[in-house]
Amino acid sequence: MTMLGQFSVTSNSLQAWIDQDQEIGLDCNGFTNAYYTAIGCFLENPIHYHNKYKQIAGVAHNWYDIDYDSVVLWARPKKSEEKKDLWEVIPNGHKGPDHHAHIGVIDHVLNDEVVVCQHGSNVGPRMSTYKIVSEPPSKAKGKEVWYLREIGTSKAQTVILTKTIPTYAAGE
To answer: How many CA atoms lie within 13 A of 120 on its CB side?
Structure first.
């Protein structure tokens, strides 16, 4: 557990942070950056490129890799003549087959479900519960895709999940 002023970082604390009337940015990336900065993950510049999150934390390949403060990155098939089953993080400002580039933060994990806090420029901050439909069958690079289905919907979305983002102590 990390202490930041009167705010402790633990499972289920993301919603509490949102409720404290924080300046959380205007879109999903601003929200995510503001949260990770508040808990001490970024010491310098905010991240503007979604793919950097998986480079920092590493990709989750199984259930045990995901926890609160893991990142959810919406994905799309990678355009490749050679391999048709590769996936990539949707680049900022682009659209995938089902959705635009998007990023969220896992608030907590409940068995085969994850509760994701996210912020969209057209809908504002919200929490959504997703059922994990399947985990990656392979640890091969480009095949790290997970399938999540938002509770109340029938269509699964393709995402890449990261391990928990590392928190840095002041002065490192």
So the answer is: 10
Other residues' Cβ atoms within 10 Å of the Cβ of residue 154: 6
Q: Has this prediction a pTM greater than 0.90?
A: no
- Say if CB 157 and CB 146 are below 8 A apart: no
Query: At 154, which amino acid appears?
Result: S
pLDDT digits (tens, 9 = 90+) for 6-62: 555 566 676 666 666 555 556 888 888 888 888 877 656 677 778 888 888 889 998
Q: Is 106 exposed, middle or buried (0-12, 13-18, 19+ CB in 10 A)?
A: buried
* Alpha-carbon torsion (100, 37, 150, 57), positive or negative: positive
DSSP designation for 47: P
Beta-bridged to residue 126, according to DSSP, are 118
